[in-house]
Write a structure and sequence with these properties.
Rossmann fold, elongated, alpha+beta, Immunoglobulin-like, 11-stranded mixed sheet, 7 domains
């Protein structure tokens, strides 16, 4: 084995040596005896695309090996210099390296992530029990090998003297060759030689019986001086010496020899490789365990169209005695027979099992007993020897394949290895039991029948069968034809197809013509009888077309023609055309899409497929050929019709932006895709307006924004004009009848008498939108179909002549808050206002964004513009904001007259918001936070950790009995350290809102005032001590205990078994200090457990359990 070095720059090698060798071999010494291994890398090559193209196969294999082995070769070279690696050689036929190194180096290679396996090189040898004797030829018949006669070689030569193996190269991987033997004295007989044992440049054979010389003579001896021993006398030889003088070797040497046989001169562009590889050697079979490197080697040979022929072994007569690689499924394994067509006793038998599958082996048998062939003069002066074994049967098959390939090439084609193997097996003389068996395989080879099967001689073909398109079928202009032909025997068939379209010139595709062969799925390679041929036809003109096929089994000299068949060429439908919605429209999540179809055949009924994708992934496919759900016409659509599709007939689609593509099907296939149509589905877009008081805004820009076009012509509508309110000095004077045409950015009040259907589809604005504001209250609407977060830093305010300012810095122009209208679910004619504010600054705010399709109140201090950012741009920003700490509590006041929502709280920013104009809101309940004579809807104070007081005024009007009114506080955002107390100024009642959360009172027709007090409180739970149970003379009892802070207390008296004896509760909070609670009922003598629970107004709870005894 020669040492190969990778050509790398010196500095690069030194760098890698430092990184890998010094770190990886610190503990490696040179004391381990080196062994031979095959190091196989993980990356492999898929040769399917290059199959049959030897140049491409070799190029792909070499490129992969060069690229992936380079790092490992650098390390091996460094180790070689250190004495840890004796030899190494890269292989490309498989992605592996032959390595002779210490066990410690091998251990490092096994851990390399690029390596898939490191296996010892398996020994190989000639099959055992092979015997030989010298030839003593006393008559002419003794000078002819009986094996040649048995397989029919002389018969074939006599029938066609040109079939002698010319132009075919056989690689003999064996013990070598005796080049001076008369049987090899033909110019160029030995085309190339490679010594993998000793590296000698001149051919030789030093084995005792010159095994390789004997094998080579059977394959390609020129039959000199009356000795007839060679089957293919004009074939040439590649000879690789892979076995030593004792006929032994290693499997990695055989693999390297097979690689050399594929490309002897190292240039894949030269056609100097073998057509057949003959290996009369083998190694022991380990059932079910592939040698993956050897398996890949055989697959690479076949991909390069090289037939691998191997001896099956001499270990019979028992079953399962085969040797590898002859018993691999990808090798042609050859057994040996005698002169009477009986199996040679020691010929190995199958079956074999690989990957759980059982295979018959051998594949075929051939003469192998007492075979006459060449030997050196040192063995016998005659130069000839009789030898027995599957080693001698194997070259009979290799020589026969050489004659078959030669005959085919003389007729203009080269058969594939699959065709050779099929023809070889299908033309044998069946021996033993009927059919293939594990003694004879398919049978003993028959050379004339084998060659005839390859070249199609003496075979009768049937008329070609036109499989598709069938008679009268409709097809596309570019189509594939499928044909098949049967034969009276084994044959290799080539085809010719003629098409006569009505609208164009005739087309002939001939597999024997290089210009026409490209249309066939096997190119110029012939088909076995019964195999289906597929032909791709160039684009045909529309209309009727006639076609027929012809078949030839003799290279195109004789053709058998089919009857004609007819089909019609139909053009595919045109790509569907989008009708609705237009590009970029925002529609609801239950849209109705409209698509126009077009086809050249007016009789076609087209069905459609709609594909909706988001972010490059298919979300919904609505295929009318699968289901008609969602389509307006079950039977399909005629050309020119508009199809209507609801892609979500049972459930809305998720909101988002979609790319929609449509296809049309005419029964033959799909049209090209339509142009993509991008639409946005909005889950917020209303399709109907309920019959109740509500606000409305345009959050798209429909092409026609008149009330009639939008579906609002019969609905009473109001807008708010702050200029009119200012001129009249009355905020309610700002309410005006809405104009006929609506505009985005403005809010509207409306109250349909019955539900109203809307038509709001339209594009969304791109980029920020500015809304003009007048001093005072303005009723606006969000122009975007997605919600806009109310953030005082991202909203901007602009005044003419000045740069835009963040809302947080423009309080002199516009208040920082807005108000939304919330319809009352119990009364469709009323509702209440809800504060909209920045929740990142004031936790607890329930509304912190402008929702689409709704109106909002904002209050301007001067003429300016509110600039709303594009929600899509905001979505790309982080939603997390670090605002100042704060809290707020929404306070709901609800009675029969309506409802109000007020907001109180404390934080780093003060918010003081008056109520917007009532007007059409229809709310007769008046409630607000009174401060400095102003009635506020929101009052957020400065200062955290401080006590604050708010005054709430509730006015139910002049009704003497307006029913029950409920004040409810939402405390979810209230910090634990803050206590909240409600004081009813009319009754003096106090309620801890932590404990109760609400307060009820009955309206009397007079305004009712309440005080809400927020103060810092201790958050620790109360401590209960000094529990005593005191019994009075009457038998009743009292519970004494001490509280560390005020809390609501309840107590239970329990028996020792846990049964509740008595329960004591107190509705109001107990004060800090000593407390006494009466225990109801009479207490008898005995032992009790007392459990006392205390809950502060902040919700902190504790309990104490004490045993007590009553003795009297």
């Amino acid at each position: 084995m020669s040492t190969r070095r990778a050509p790398i720059p010196c500095y690069f090698a030194l760098l890698l040596i430092a990184a890998w060798v010094l770190a990886g071999l610190a503990s490696v010494t040179a004391q381990d005896p080196p062994r031979r291994y095959l190091v196989r890398l993980k990356e492999s090559v898929d040769l399917n695309a290059a199959r049959g193209n030897r140049r491409a196969v070799v190029a792909q294999l070499q490129q992969t090996a060069t690229r992936t082995q380079a790092p490992l070769l650098i390390r091996l070279e460094a180790w070689r210099r250190q004495g840890e690696v004796q030899e190494y050689e890269p292989l490309w036929i498989v992605n592996a390296i032959r390595v002779q190194a210490s066990e410690r180096v091998i251990a490092i290679l096994r851990r390399d992530p690029a390596v898939v396996s490191v296996l010892p090189a398996q020994p190989i040898t000639l099959p055992p029990a092979q015997r030989a004797r010298v030839a003593r030829a006393s008559r002419q018949s003794d000078q002819t090998s009986w094996g040649l006669v048995k397989i029919g070689a002389p018969e074939l030569w006599e029938r066609d003297p040109a079939i002698r193996g010319a132009g075919v190269t056989v690689a003999v991987i064996d013990t070598g060759i005796t080049p001076e033997h008369p049987q090899f004295q033909q110019p160029g007989k030995i085309r190339a030689w490679k010594d993998f044992v000793a590296g000698k440049t001149a051919p030789y054979d030093d084995a005792e019986w010159a095994h390789g010389t004997h094998v080579a003579g059977t394959i390609a001896g020129i039959n000199a001086d009356g000795w007839v021993v060679g089957i293919a006398p004009d074939a040439t030889l590649l000879v690789a010496k892979a076995l030593d003088a004792q006929s032994g070797g290693l499997i990695d040497t055989a693999i390297a020899a097979m690689q050399w046989a594929m490309d002897p001169d190292g240039n894949p562009n030269t056609a100097d490789g073998a057509d057949i590889v003959n290996c009369s050697l083998g190694g022991p079979h380990l059932e079910g365990h592939w040698n993956p490197t050897l398996k890949s080697t055989l697959e690479a040979l076949r991909a390069a169209n090289i037939l691998p022929v191997f001896a099956i072994g001499n270990s019979g007569p028992g079953p399962k005695t085969t040797v590898l690689p002859g018993d691999y499924p990808t090798a042609v394994g050859v057994g040996a027979t005698g002169p009477e067509d009986t199996i040679w006793l020691r010929s190995s038998r199958g079956p074999v099992v690989w990957d759980g599958l059982t295979y018959i082996k051998p594949d075929v048998t051939a003469p192998g007993e007492e075979i006459l062939s060449c030997t050196p003069a040192r063995t016998d002066p005659s130069g000839y020897l009789y030898s027995s074994g599957t080693s001698n049967a194997c070259p009979h098959v290799a020589g026969a394949a050489a004659l078959a390939i030669s005959a085919a090439r003389a007729r203009g084609f080269s058969p594939t290895v699959n065709a050779l193997e099929i023809a070889l097996k299908s033309t044998t003389v069946d021996l033993g039991v009927v059919g293939p068996d594990n003694t004879y395989g398919a049978g003993r080879i028959d050379l004339p029948r084998f060659v005839d099967a390859i070249i199609g001689a003496n075979v009768t073909l049937s008329q070609p069968e036109l499989l598709s398109p069938t008679e009268g079928a409709a097809v596309r202009p570019t189509l594939s034809l499928r044909i098949r032909c049967s034969a009276s025997g084994s044959a290799l068939i080539r085809y010719r197809v003629a098409l006569t379209p009505a609208g164009g010139p005739a087309i002939v595709l001939d597999q024997t013509d290089p210009n026409g062969a490209a249309a066939f799925d096997r190119n110029s390679r012939p088909y076995e009888a019964g195999a289906v041929a597929t032909i791709t036809v160039p684009k045909l003109p529309p209309g009727p077309c006639e076609w027929r096929a012809s078949a030839s089994a003799d290279g195109g000299n004789t053709w058998i023609e089919s009857e004609p068949a007819h089909f019609t060429v139909n053009l595919p439908p045109e790509p569907p055309e989008w009708v609705y919605p237009p590009e970029g429209y925002v529609v609801s999540t239950t849209p109705v899409l409209q698509i126009r179809v077009s086809d050249d055949d007016p009789g076609d009924r087209l069905k459609l497929k709609l594909v909706l994708s988001a972010d490059g992934q298919e979300v919904r496919v609505v295929d009318q050929t699968v289901s008609t759900d969602g389509w307006s016409a079950e039977a399909g659509y005629a050309s020119g019709e508009v199809a209507r599709c609801t892609p979500s007939p049972t459930a809305p689609l998720p909101a988002g932006t979609y790319s929609c593509t449509a296809y049309a099907h005419d029964g033959l296939g799909w049209s090209p895709a339509s142009a993509p149509r991008q639409i946005t589905l909005s889950s917020e877009m209303p399709r109907w307006l309920p019959a109740r008081l509500q606000t409305f805004a345009l959050s798209t820009s429909p092409p026609n924004t008149t009330r009639e076009a939008l579906g609002l012509s019969q609905v009473p509508m109001k807008v708010y004009d702050p200029v009119a309110a200012a001129q009249a000095g009355d905020v309610l004077a700002g309410y005006q009848d809405a104009p006929e045409t609506l505009v985005p950015g403005r809010g509207y009040w409306l109250k349909p008498g019955t539900p109203v259907a809307l038509a709001l589809d339209g594009p969304a604005p791109s980029g920020a939108v500015a809304i003009d504001l007048e001093p005072g209250w303005n009723f606006i609407g969000s122009p975007f179909p997605a919600s806009v977060p109310w953030r005082v830093e991202s909203l901007q305010v602009k005044q003419d002549g000045h740069a835009p300012l963040p809302l947080a810095s423009a309080s002199h122009l516009l208040e920082e808050f807005a108000f939304a209208f919330q319809p009352d679910p119990l009364d469709p004619g009323t509702g209440s206002y809800v504060l909209v504010y920045d929740s990142t600054l004031l936790p607890g705010i329930t509304a912190d964004r402008l929702e689409p399709w709704h109106g909002y109140w904002v209050k301007a201090r001067a003429k300016c513009r509110l600039i709303l950012p594009d929600p899509n741009a905001l979505a790309a920003q982080s939603a997390t904001r670090t605002g100042a700490p704060g809290w707020c509590v929404p306070v709901s006041v609800r009675g029969p007259m309506g409802a109000r929502t007020l907001v109180l709280g404390a934080g780093a920013r003060a918010v003081s918001a008056e109520l917007p104009p009532e007007g059409v809101a229809g709310n007769r309940l008046r409630a607000g936070l009174e401060r400095n004579g102003r009635l506020l809807a929101a009052d957020v104070r400065l200062g955290l950790g401080k006590s604050h007081e708010w005054e709430i005024v509730v006015d139910t009007g002049q009704l003497p009995d307006a029913g029950e009114v409920v004040v409810t506080c939402d405390l979810r955002a209230l910090p634990k350290g803050i206590g909240l107390t409600l004081v009813d100024k009319a009754t003096g009642a106090r309620r801890s809102l932590r404990a109760s959360g609400s307060y009820r009172f009955r309206a009397s027709g007079e305004p009712r005032r309440f005080q809400i007090i927020a103060r810092p409180v201790e958050t620790a739970p109360p401590v209960i001590t000094g529990i005593r149970l005191v019994k009075a003379r009457s038998g009743s009892g009292a519970l004494q205990f001490t509280l560390s802070r005020a809390a609501v207390v309840d107590a239970e008296l329990l028996s020792p078994t846990g049964r509740v004896v008595a329960v004591a509760t107190r509705a109001r909070a107990s004060d800090a200090g000593l407390n006494v609670m009466a225990i109801p009922g009479r207490l008898g003598r005995g032992l009790y457990l007392v459990r006392v629970r205390a809950t502060t107004e902040e919700g902190a709870t504790t309990q104490a359990i004490r045993p007590v005894a009553i003795l009297e």
